[in-house]
């Protein structure tokens, strides 16, 4: 979700982002123009900010129909998690985006990160032989990603 906010903002799109209240400053720092707490009624909150609803929504948190409610009639909805897309309503187009290996896209993200245009959230780095420890850490709350290095 954080990458999506940063990439959309970098392209000049108006971004309304939803996350936990403790993450408001972080999400705004990523470039979100507006913030909606995860506890709010997402559709109502977005429509109050964007009359008629958003042109599109990207659902990285499996909010499903709550995010679809924020989209205008005829808009677009993309789900990043398999099974996370709701049934299309009001003429919306619903896309299931399957994450796949794409060396060109990855190289572009690396270039953005190296230029400081993409903020990476790294919670920690562990040696590759401590993969079991990394999995145990991921079972609890982790802010950011864990990196395994040889």
TrEMBL record:
Ranges where the Alcohol dehydrogenase-like C-terminal domain occurs: 1-87
Domain of life: Bacteria
Name assigned to this protein: Zinc-binding dehydrogenase
Organism: Nonomuraea zeae
């Amino acid at each position: 979700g954080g990458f999506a906010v940063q990439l959309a903002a970098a392209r000049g799109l108006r971004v309304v982002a939803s996350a936990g209240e403790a993450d408001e400053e972080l999400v705004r720092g990523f470039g979100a123009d507006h913030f909606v707490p995860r506890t709010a009624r997402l559709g109502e909150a977005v429509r109050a900010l964007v009359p008629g609803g958003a042109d599109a929504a990207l659902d990285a948190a499996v909010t499903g129909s709550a995010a679809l409610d924020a989209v205008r009639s005829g808009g677009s909805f993309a789900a990043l998690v398999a099974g996370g897309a709701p049934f299309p309503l009001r003429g919306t187009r619903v896309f299931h985006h399957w994450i796949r290996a794409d060396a060109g896209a990855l190289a572009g993200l690396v270039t953005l990160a190296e230029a400081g245009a993409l903020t990476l959230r790294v919670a920690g780095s562990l040696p590759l032989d401590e993969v079991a420890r990394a999995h145990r850490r991921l079972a609890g709350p982790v802010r950011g990603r864990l990196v395994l290095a040889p």
